[in-house]
Amino acid sequence: MNFRPALIGALALATLVTAHAATTTRPQADAFAKKVAIINQHAEAGAKSPRRTTVTESEVNSWFEFRAQPLLPAGVTSPKVTAIGNGKLLATAVVDLEAVGKKRGTGGTLDIWSWLGGRVPLSVTGILHTKSGQGRFELQTADISGVPIPKTLLQELVSYYTRTTDHPQGVKLDDPFELPAQIKQIEVGQAQAVVVQ
């Protein structure tokens, strides 16, 4: 049996993972924060001229790593986004299912929340559709620790972690949403996105 192709594949994968990890830096987090400030200033000034701002996957993930923690809901850590292209995104995070289970579970043996617990990796893929200042996320797959989960379970998690006093039910996955800062659309490409105002 020839192990060389498997070894080469494993080394290539390790190199990609290491390269990705190395791309998150404080300067890139600062660059993303500055771009967000410019986007907001453009909107606040009521500028009529169109503006296109490119943000990279590395900038967004650097911001998540170095600046986002105070803004994340309790129980959500290590968020990362991969811009695949043609609007498709892969988002991952570690979520704490204990808190959700205590709130949502009935305690019965057939209740799925009775079986779930602890801090686990959550992955979601889907396509971001944006046009004329409106957005919608089309869910394609979701899994916890590599095990596919139904949309209803993902909705429970999203609702729990996005609820506020103004929106006690949290965000609904299928609901369209208004883009902030007079953004007309977001063009998701490979490893980057262009914000169009």
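the 2nd protein, sequnce then structure:
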Amino acid sequence: MDWDKLRIFHAVAEAGSFTHAGEVLNLSQSAVSRQISALEESLRVPLFHRHARGLILTEQGEMLYRTAHEVFIKLSTAEATLTESRERPRGPLKVTTTVAFGSTWLAPRMHSFLDLYPEIQMHLILDDRELDLSMRQADVAIRLSPPRQPDLIQRHLLTVHMHAYASPVYLKKRGLPNKPEDLDKHRLLVYGQDTRPPFPDANWLLRAGASDNRLRQPVLTVNNVYAIMQALAAGAGIGALPEFMVPDNSDLVRILPDLEGPRIDAYFVYPEELRGTHRVEVFRDFLLRQVAQSKF
């Protein structure tokens, strides 16, 4: 098989259309289409079902795509290994984590890492969804729950807890709750259930100390923990935040000190094929040092 045609086939299978693949490859739609037709002709099998809404792989196309994808991952890993210096790690490193953790804890520390390793090009992808590391949507992930994929290497990074917070503006207006049962009379902000939260039991405040074990009704749900913090700071109500989001100089007030939410275990996660990659190792060690210096 012609390598260029196989590369174009892989891009089309990933993109789902000739047009989108052409944008990725910097080729015209017609050029991409001709290459796929030539590959199908040389193999004497159809690789795609063509219809008005796009392209769907045939059974033979699925088989070729799985093989091609494995080859491209191995080539990418080999390239990274060959170009990386053991003495001076270099090259791109794509890291994904949640919006809250990435915005409030990780991003402010990145300047220190870049000072230590200026030849590593960092790419932070902040997304509360879990990107697929096996598909190389990212190289490593920091996840706030145990990884569900069995083929990933994981290292426990840190453990934090959730606490209840409110702003001085809100507490001056509505009063300070003295016991968990008092939350029945307050305005609560939670993550909600519209999307999967970035860590387990994110809405625990709705039942904490509630009478008759009933869930309280929140006044606001926001499917982004960083946005919850902003709303709390503006005086919207009482909400739960991981302690890494609230620095010592924050105006937010921790209420009900004896009330503690679920434990959050964060993990440093990466695929097996990146084991021993120097960029991954130095970033992991940097995070462990930063965790050791943090107050959790």
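Residues 22 and 28 are 5 Å apart (CA to CA). The mean pLDDT is 89.
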